[in-house]
Fold this protein.
Amino acid sequence: MLGSGFIGRFYADSLQGQRSRDKIVSIYSRREESAKKFAADYNCAHWTTSMEEAINHPDVDMVCISLPNNLHEAAVLACCKAKKAVMCTKPLGRNAEEAKRMLDAVEKAGIFNGYLEDLVYTPKFLKALASVKSGALGRILWAKSRETHPGPHSEWFWDKEQAGGGCILDLGCHCVEISRSFIGKDIKPIEVMCWADTQVKPIDAEDHAIGLVKYENGAIGQFEVSWTFRGGLDLRDEVMGSEGTIWLNSFLRTGFDMFTTGKGADYVAEKAESNTGWLFPVGDELNELGYNHMFADMFNAVEAGKAPQETFYDGYVVNAVLDAAYRSAKSKLWEPVKLEVWRGKEGADKEKSLTSYNEQFYLIKDEVTHFGSRKLILKDKKTGQIVEQVI
Ligand SMILES: NC(=O)c1ccc[n+]([C@@H]2O[C@H](COP(=O)([O-])OP(=O)(O)OC[C@H]3O[C@@H](n4cnc5c(N)ncnc54)[C@H](O)[C@@H]3O)[C@@H](O)[C@H]2O)c1
């Protein structure tokens, strides 16, 4: 494990929880006391303040990168040198150029690479995706994802150089991969329009943004991200298809509401801002946030010699979409997604969904009214005229 901070500990809880057979055998942290503390907390035999030493430890089969964004590339390159399988947290790079160098390096070294995008592994997401793939929603038209909270935990996130950006990069990476998965990872994202601003925090990067991602088949992705939201961690997705709808609420208001005057002062949930009054605790954060399913996929894939659901290639595509968002926020125009490598469909058709009613008409709408009749709205296939029939 590289990094003993916020996410390193969530990952460790998931990796070693529930009688797992996977084990953290070496922990690297920048400071000796943090490395020692992590080693003690997770019963880890080896700790070090040298990244190379942890990666090259003979008992290490797989490296998990839980370091600040500006250190991902150096860590990946060290794994390539040591020929160790690697998993990297999000975002893969601070931009697509950095992500592409990481992708090229792991592919050249021929090592396993997994992109740790936990929010496409939550139980709710996996079930929703299975429904979308089975056709339950028809053609996906719009996939919106929101992640907003009161801001990240460590100082480096707030420094544009180390983090690579603000909430667009930090949170938009989750949202883009969620929308992209619902729309289809083989469908090319082509253009982005984004509004971003620094509304509250005294920082150079953006603390609030909304963006639209256009896909080649005509579907639209939408992300809403903020480091200025008050009230906890808001994770919500909406998918709209020609045959159905899905709404997911992954963290606040998930069916566990609690009131307390504050006597117990318990930990409530990640980024909860209060522990009194009405609260929304989360039953099992590791599972609800997707960590368990994510690591199961990663380890099953490495053992089977297969690629996991999320690879460095996915991380690279996400970075390319977010680069376009940053360009659009500046230019105020639709900006193209620049993908040097594209492995999905080329020239996906803009799908049409004209429902034929009979030889003469297309069906626009079929409705039963409150006064008991059935109303059909139809369009003549030849003349284009729109007519109404009450049955
Ligand atoms: N849901 C998620 O997938 C999720 C959530 C939070 C963070 N992250 C990602 O995990 C990575 C780490 O974030 P975090 O919240 O754990 O950060 P953090 O500051 O809590 O931890 C970073 C760790 O990196 C190590 N480190 C080594 N050199 C360092 C240096 N020069 N400066 C600072 N730390 C150094 C330290 O051990 C430190 O504990 C980031 O890339 C972040 O985007 C992912």
The mean pLDDT is 96. The pocket of nicotinamide-adenine-dinucleotide is lined by residues 3-8, 29-30, 34, 66-69, 71, 89-90, 116, 118, 153-154, 156 (CB under 6 Å).
